[in-house]
Amino acid sequence: MLRAVKIFFWSLLLVITLNGCIPDRLPPEPISNKRPSFVSFGQLDSSHLVIPVDYKIEMRFNWAMDLSTFPANFTVESVSGKISGKFSYSSKADTIVVFTPNSNYNPAEYYNISLSGAVRNVNGMSMISPNEEDVPMTAWFFTEGDYSKDGFPLVFVRDKSQKQVIYRVGELNKYKDSLYVQATNEDYQTAAIEFSPIGKYLYMVNLKTTTGTVTVIDPQSFNVVNTINVGLGPTNIGFSSDKAFVTNTSDKSFTVFDLTTLNVLETVSFDDGFKPKDVVFSQLTGKLYFYSNSKKKIKIVNAQNYSEQSVLDSVLTDNKAIDIEISADGKYVFLPEYRTDKIVIFDTGTNKVSKILETGNPYVTDGVMGKDYYYQAFFKKVGKENVGGIMKINTSTFDIEDILMWDKDIDKLGLTSANELLYAVVPGDTTVQVIETKTLKNITEVKLNGSLKYLAVSKNNY
Question: DSSP secondary-structure letter at 7?
Answer without folding.
Answer: H
